[in-house]
Each structure stands twice: as C-alpha cells, then as structure tokens.
Amino acid sequence: MFRASEPICDCLGPLAHKKTADSTLPPVLNAIEIFTAQSLDEFFTATEDVIAIESIKSTYQVGKTWSGDPCSPRLFPWEGIRCSYNNSNHQIKSLNLSSSRLQGQIALAFRNLSLLESLDLSNNNLQENVPEFLADLKHLRFLNLKGNKLAGVIPKPLMKKSKAGLLTLSVDGKNLCDSSSCRDKNKIIVPIVVATSVIVLFFVLVIIWIILRGRKIRAYSGPLLPPGKRRFTYNEVSSITNNFNKVIGKGGFGIVYLGCLEDGTEIAVKMIKDSSLKKSKGSSSRVSKEFQVEAELLLTVHHRNLASFVGYCDDGRSMALIYEYMANGNLQDYLSNENAEGLSWEKRLHIAIDSAQGLEYLHHGCRPPIVHRDVKTANILLNDNLEAKIADFGLSKVFPADDLSHVMTDVMGTPGYVDPEYYRTFMLNEKSDVYSFGVVLLELITGQRAIVKMEDGDKINIVHFVEPFIETRELDGLVDQRLRGSVSPDSAWKFMEVAMYCVRNRGSNRPTMNQIVAELKQCLAAGLAGEPQSHKKKVVNEITKQI
C-alpha cells in the first residue's frame, strides 16, 4: 500500500507561491508529492482452523457476522474470536460462543482448534455427554459449559487437568458429575434399589410357588423368554424351514435357512454346526459359548437398527438362533453383486447412518455398554427397503459401567477390520468397534473389500489403499466407479474425513459413535443439498494430515 506525504508547499509556506525577480511567468513547481511504500502484508488463518470454524458455523448455524478470514486483518477478527499471530499463519486461541443458541451435542470440529486456550459454550442448549476429546486440546486453560443440558460423567482426563490446576472448568452440577461423585450418588441409590428389588423378587417367588403348586409344568433349561420371543424345538425349526429347504447364508458358525412362522412372517434361522456343540464331556466349545452370549444379549437389546430376535432352539440335539428375515442379505454381498448398480450415494449414506445408530445404541444406550467386536459389512443386514441392521453378537462383550476397557487374552474379530491398537495391546473398548466401522465406511464409498486385491496380486488393507488418492486429491480414484458423477464432492470428502477419523491409530483420538452419527447426518444433508465444491482443497488437506 502507498501513502502520499505532505506537499512541500506546506513546508515552504509563502515562498512556494512567489516567482523569481527576473521571471515573467508564475512558478512552474508549486509542490512535490513524494510516495513511500509501507508493507501491510497479512498472513492467513491456518487451514485446519478455517475448516474447523466453518464446520462449527455450519453445524450450529451460528448467527454471527462471520465472513472472510477468521483472524485477518488483526484489528477485525470474527466476533467472539481471538487469535495468535506468528510469522507463518494465524491460529484461533479463544472462542466465545456463549448465548449463541447452539443446539445438539458438542461437535467434533472443536478438537481441531489445536491452539485453543479458552472455550466458552455457556448458556446454550447443548445436550448429551461432555466429549473426552476436549482433553486433547493441550493448550486449553478455560472451559465454560454452564447453562446447558449436558448430562453424564465428566471425562476423567478433563477432571484430572482441572484438579491439577491446568484447566478452569465450569459446569452445572445438576446433571454432570465426576466418577467419584457419581459413585457417592450410587452409594445412596444402590441400597434403596437393592431393598426394593428384594421385596419385588420375594413377591414374584411367592406367585411362582403358588402357580407351581396349582399345576405341573414342564421345565426347560433355557432362559425365560420375554413376551413375543419363543423357544423352539428341533422339530418346530425343521417344520418352519420346510425341512431346511432354502439356504440364504453361510458362515463359520453354520448355515442360515429361510423359514416361515404360522402367521406367514418370514424369518431367518441360523443353525449352529452339530460338530461345534460339544468339545468334550463337561466343557462347551467356543461356538457354544458364543451361542449363549448372543442369545442372552438378543433377549435384552432392542433397537430398530439391530436385527430383531424372534427366538431360539437349544434342545440338546441342535442350537439355532431365529431372527427377522432381511430380504436383501448382508451389505458385503449386496455391494459385490449387480444390485449395487442401483445403490445410490444417498442410499449408502442412509445405510451408514442406520449402522452407526445401531452401534451407538450398543455403546451409549445400553447399561452396561456392549462392544460388538465383529463389526463388518457381512454383519450388517439389509431389509427390503435397504434399511440396515447390525447382526451377529456372538463375539460381543458386555462392559461394567465403571470400566470401559478390558484386557483380553484372545484378539477376536475378522482380518481387515480388527483395531490395530487392540491387536497390539489386547486392550478392548468401544473405540475398537469405531475402527471397524471406519473400515465399513471406506467400503461403502469405494466399493472395495476390507482387504483389497491389487493388480499385481498383492493384498493391502483398504485404509492404506485410499491413502494415495487422498494425498493426490483424486476423488474419482476413491469413489466406487458405479457412483462417479453422481456424488456431491463436499459430501464425499466429509464422509472420507469421518472414516479417516475412525481408523486413527490411537483409540483415544477416534470419535464416539454418537459423534459419528451426527457427522454422517451432515454428510447426508450436504449430499441432498448438492452443495458446490467450496472447500474441497481445505478438507482434503485436513484428511491428509490424519493419515
């Protein structure tokens, strides 16, 4: 930028307007204007901060005048934002969104503001849990969450930083508590619950005793089934499958047959191999244990994105689990056959959201939480409307509510989907399911299997298969060729961002399933809106950093 100096005439005064004694003309030079250059170069805000703040703006529909560069020029950053300025770029160090009408959960995008020192989200309508990823913000010194509808346990890492004086944490005590205060509450509640349960149990036993005295009943070894669930005999299973006439699936456990109940309802009957039932006298095989785990879990979990349980058979000769029939089979087979030609990007997004909601229920809706341990496209079933449901709970693990991590002696799961951290450390938690689900998302967008067979005959994990395409910003190479030309770039790159977050090496750096559900819904919204390719380069750069 150039600025004009003051004219010389101001310095010369009256002399500047007088001619010389021997001159016949007025002065030729009245003044001189001298221009000097002053550098006002401004650096731009760091790309990852721009992506994060734009995502926050979009997620919450922030009603502030936010346009241009968040931190530049220095004198006029965005409202509620303060920045750190250095010789390379600017980064956001303070964000005040108090009383900004924010709704929903705390978005994953906040974790990408890596230099954030102060975050004020008070007096909004934020709900669900306080996310653990806030503790990953190494420079965060002030966090205000008061005046929201957050609930549950404050993450241990946040409480640890607060108690160490590294973080000023402001929360409402009504719905939030740390692990110790929650235990104190439980100490009061548990005796009352136990006493009530004993009384109720006593009356139930009295009623059962009266009924048993009045009539003889035939006892059986299986668990009592809730209303609508049945215990079938082998002969009944043979009858409803028309003597095991139609095979609709196969696996290491056995064979799945199509069946039909008396009312015409179609069902799927998963028969356990006879050779797997008993290993030796007095000891059950692994398959038998998995059958027991799955049967017990299916009796207690109920969600529209989990395969519905109809009943089971365990009469000594055979074991079977009976589910609702899913007309379009499993997602792995569906992606591999010609039907996938009609599987649009929108339908794939719906399948991803359905599956994520099923896992979200297992992790956050069940008490205690349940880790599936075998999340894969073969265990995601599709009904006639292509609605997705999680199935096969034989390897699932129930966690005590106060202990979300277990050391396992054996690593269970399917090659290509197994969490590398779990494989390395034998430590299992819900983030192991998150990794597996990230692989499922990559299969959905690429159309490839979890283990990709290359042209030279080599086989690589799909996570490594997508890396070169991300680095070279080649969307066409990533997307299933059956989708090319019909996918919103913004939606696709956002989807890839979520998938790559899920498959991060460290479980603590992966999102939770409720965060994933929210992010996938944004992908769907972007896909339906057909948004322009506005921030493709920035989003791709952000994904590349995660590899």
Automatic annotation (TrEMBL):
Sample GO molecular function, one term: protein serine/threonine kinase activity
Keyword field: ATP-binding, Kinase, Leucine-rich repeat, Membrane, Nucleotide-binding, Phosphoprotein, Receptor, Repeat, Serine/threonine-protein kinase, Signal, Transferase, Transmembrane, Transmembrane helix
Recorded topology in the membrane: Single-pass membrane protein
Binding, ATP: K270
Bilayer-spanning residue ranges: 188-212
Pfam families to which the protein is assigned, alphabetical: LRR_8, PK_Tyr_Ser-Thr
InterPro entries: Kinase-like_dom_sf, Leu-rich_rpt, LRR_dom_sf, Prot_kinase_dom, Protein_kinase_ATP_BS, Ser-Thr/Tyr_kinase_cat_dom, Ser/Thr_kinase_AS
Keyword Zinc on entry: no
Gene Ontology CC: one annotated term: membrane
Protein kinase domain segment(s): 242-524
Cell compartments where the protein resides: Membrane
Superkingdom of the source species: Eukaryota
Protein name: Protein kinase domain-containing protein
Annotated source species: Arabis alpina
Taxon lineage: Eukaryota, Viridiplantae, Streptophyta, Embryophyta, Tracheophyta
